[in-house]
Structure formats: C-alpha cells, structure tokens
Amino acid sequence: MNPMEKSGWTPLAHSDEDLHVARSVPDTPQTRSPTYRLAYADDDFLTRRELRAVRLQLELLKTEMALAARGIQSTVILFGGARLPEPGADAWAAKNETQKKNLEANSRYYAEARRFAQLCSKESARSGYHEYVVVTGGGPGVMEAGNRGAADVGAPSIGLNIVLPHEQAPNLYVTPELCFNFHYFAIRKMHFMMRAKAVAVFPGGFGTMDEFFEALTLIQTGRMERVPVILFGKEFWDRAINLDFLAEQGTISPGDQDIISFVDTADAAWKIIADFYAGR
C-alpha cells in the first residue's frame, strides 16, 4: 500500500473513522474531559507551545500536498505592495496628501502586475496549468492584481495568506482550492520559493522588501538555483535600495547586483523569463 494514497488499503482503522466513532460516544463527565479528546482532533492541545514543531510540519505538509495533488510543478511569484490601488480607485491606505499622490501614481503597477499575470498564465495553459502558475500573498494591491490577471484568462492561481492582527480576507480572484492561510511566516516563505521559476517584485513596503531579500539571499548564497528576479519600476527601486553602494562598501560581491533585472512593463518582464528558459 502507498501510505500517501487516500484510498490505500490497511487492516487498521483510519484516523477519520476513529474520529467519527469518538464523537458519537455517550455524553459523560469522562468523555467531556479534554484529556479524552483524540490528540489530533484537540485544538487546545495542538495549539500548545510545546507543539510548535508539529504545527510547523503541518503547515508545510498541508500546502505541499494540495499543490502536489493539483500537479503544480513550478510557479511565478508576484511580490508587491498591498496598498497600491487599482488605477482610478481610491488610495485607501494613504495617510496624507503626499502618500495619496504617490500611491495613485504607482497604481500603474497594479495594471502591469495584472498584465504580467495574464502573460504567465497564458504560458501556464500550455502545460495544463502545471508550470508557471501565478502565486501571490493572496491579499489586496499587487497581490490582487496578480490573481486577477490569472482569472482574466481563466487560469488558476495560488494565494498564500497569513494571519495578521488586521489582516484582510483573501482577495476574490484567488482560486478557492489554492487559497491557503498560514501562522508561520517562515513556512509561508518556503512555499513561495520551493517551486519558483521566476520572482517579480513590484513597489512595496517592509513585507515586499523582506520577501525580495529572501529570494536574493537564497540565490546569492547558492541555496537555490539562479532564476530571474525582476524588479518593476527602476526609478522606485533606485531610491528605495542602493545595491551599488553595498558593492562599493564590500558588503556584497561585485556583480551580485546582476542577479536583478529592472523593467517597467509586463511584456519586458515576460521576455526576460522566456529568454532565460529558452531551450532549457
């Protein structure tokens, strides 16, 4: 028997069967006791601090098994700001007039993210949606644009949400069966990178920077193969970070900046990916 096969034969009772039996026992002081609950069906037990290692494994496995069952072999990541509005929409996150002006100006990247996701998804269709599947953080802004672009062309897309104190619901363009929710940032970031064939980064804040530098670090240290890392908006990124300065200071090697490509349009970004993988 294949233990990973849901219908695989075993002479032992399945855990889901025992769960049903355990829930149908007579109501007594003993059966109401928390200690009587099956360990794997006891939320209070599973959320104890001592069970952190188990929860880490569960978060890794649940998403991994779902993506494997869907046959998803590679992805294209879209990172970018949750606060960027759709062109013409209200800059809801602006705290002052300067931010409002800049967010509205940067809304063009919402449109480019949507277009880029359309291009990725059209290529994904050629493999039956097993390759180049769009994956985002599942929220608003650039993330919404990415999932929306996939939906525009009838393609599935992945959303990797995370529980935050003021987190929004997943955007409505994520494929429901590929919409996941995480407690651990580390496991969420693993799932971003484990199938990544390209990383597209749009203007954003701390979260975008964190995800971007995670990818850079993995490539620079040789912990993952070189894949295209594409930054949308050279003017924005030239002011936000200065990799040439780091190279001058000796804190990165000369040439480490070349891991990154800069573009302003979705078509230019897709050409970089197509050229990179041509003949591979």
Q: Give unreliable regions as ranges.
A: none
Per DSSP, the total helix count is: 12
Strand content: 5-15%
In percent, how helical is the residue content? Answer: 40-55%
Query: How many E strands?
Result: 7
Query: Shape, please?
Result: elongated
Terminal Cα span = 36 Å
> What string, H for helix and E for strand, traces the elements in order?
HHHHEHHEHEEHEHEHHEH
Nearest-angstrom radius of gyration?
22 Å
Provide the residue-averaged pLDDT. Answer: 94
Class by alpha and beta content: alpha/beta
Task: Give a topology summary.
Layout: H1 15-22, H2 29-32, H3 43-46, H4 52-70, E1 75-79, H5 97-105, H6 108-125, E2 133-136, H7 142-152, E3 158-162, E4 179-182, H8 185-194, E5 196-201, H9 206-220, E6 229-232, H10 234-240, H11 243-249, E7 260-263, H12 266-277
Helix pairs in contact: 4-8, 6-7, 6-12
Describe, in plain words, how this protein is organized in 3D.
The chain has 280 residues and is α/β, with parallel strands linked by helices. Helix content is 44%, strand content 11%. It is built from 12 helices and 7 strands. It has a 7-stranded parallel beta sheet with strand order 4-3-2-1-5-6-7, sandwiched between helices. β2 (133-136), α7 and β3 form a beta-alpha-beta unit. The radius of gyration is 22 Å and the shape is elongated. The chain starts with 14 loop residues before the first helix and ends with a helix.
